[in-house]
Model the fold of this input.
Amino acid sequence: MDEFEKTIRTTLSDTDKFDAAKAETLRKEIVQMFQKKLKTALIITWVGIGVAVVFEVAGWIGLVLSMFLGGGVKLMIFFGVIALSAGQLHLLAKLCYWVYHNEIKVRTEVKELQLQIAELADKNPPAGN
Amino acid sequence: MDLGHLYFDIVSDLELRISDFASLGIFTLVKSPLQITPFMQNKANFLDALMNVNPYNTTYYENKWQRRVRKNKPNSNPIKPNLRKAKMNVNSLITKDYRKKDDFAVQKNKPNSKPISVKPKMNVNLYVTKDYENKTVFRLEQNKPKQSQFQTRSEFIPKGAEIPTGELLGILKPGTNFKSEGRSEKWNFSHRSSDLYYRIMRKSRAQIYNELLVLKCQQGSRDAFEGLVERWQKRLWHYAFQVTGSDAAAWDVVQETWVGIINGIRKLGDAAVFGCWAFRILNNKCADWLRKQHLQSRLSDQLANQAQDESDKRQNSSEKVESLFVAIEKLSPEHRALLTLRYREGFDISQMAEILGIAEGTVKSRLHRTLEKLRQLMGQKPNG
Done:
């Protein structure tokens, strides 16, 4: 990097018209948006799981009733398919959630460990470096 | 002709004649145990067994036998091993590297004025450690990579390298298949492994903390997201301001960028590339804003400003600007974006290419042209 480039760097760093008050307002807005997004995701997840559970229970009840009250084979198959599909969907959703969160959890723990190592390395720098 | 050859020729001639008799069915010539087994197995009556012999097999044996006799003649055109092909398969980089390694071995035997005193204290992979030692002694620091290279590039990992420490520390992208990455094959092993060493040992705390914040955001932590906004908002705003040239527009663009980040942060696979990713979103939003502005201005006062613009351009090109700040302001948004990314944010060429969505060569040439233009505006002589 020559002198000219160094001057450019200094000039670009010096020209700071950043409005801190505006930034604070925007930060709050953005965090609220993030919270809203999280809440929406949570609601959608729980509603989806609730619907799956309702369908599963309804399917099993329908299957049992059609078995004992003589609803016919077609009806039994229909209820059976609904119960099994809803159950599988429910399980799949939970599994995906579990996989995603565990992966991130492990990576977070590793990163925390890495941060601790970096802190230790900063405290005790290797000789000659 | 010596006696051995004469004897051999007579014997082979005799055998050929006997085989002719055998093929006529006068008697059976047994030359090989393979020939016996098909018709002697569990067969008491030899004549019956002879009747059952498969003609195809017989022919095959005969041919084989005859061929074996003729095979002993000197071959005028022997098959040579294809050495050329084997030569072509050798990787030139590996050969070079070996050559260097040999050089090292020779140099190692000389009395060393600079004994190896530096050994990494952390649990770095043995191979990397060795290589680092070599580098310290023989190449000094000529290949020491820049700090900004350590952030994102998973393809800097050498082909076939097994680095449990890096994987453990989360420096490498989990699940990255190093062996299948085409780009990594082009790199010299020793050079890249040194990069890896620096990436492990020299990753800044701020950077690790940033990655941690991203991961916690992905888990849904509000505080982590707030921290992330606090850390990146100023940088994003500055870039937007440089590109758009307007304070209000910069805030709008930054807000839109954060919306994009909120929507996509869960899908971000590698927390280390957050910076590049966020700047890329910002760059796209800025481009959208500029396009919109351009369309609006074109619709409103296309005809009215045409003459004025031309005269301004002529004036700008002839005018020598004293201040660098004014000169930067006179550049196009594209050029200002390049300068900001390079000199304010400190991204390297490959990261800039990722952010701007263009090739590294294009980034280099554009940056060069920008600097030339800036020099021209400042009244300096262009380099090179």
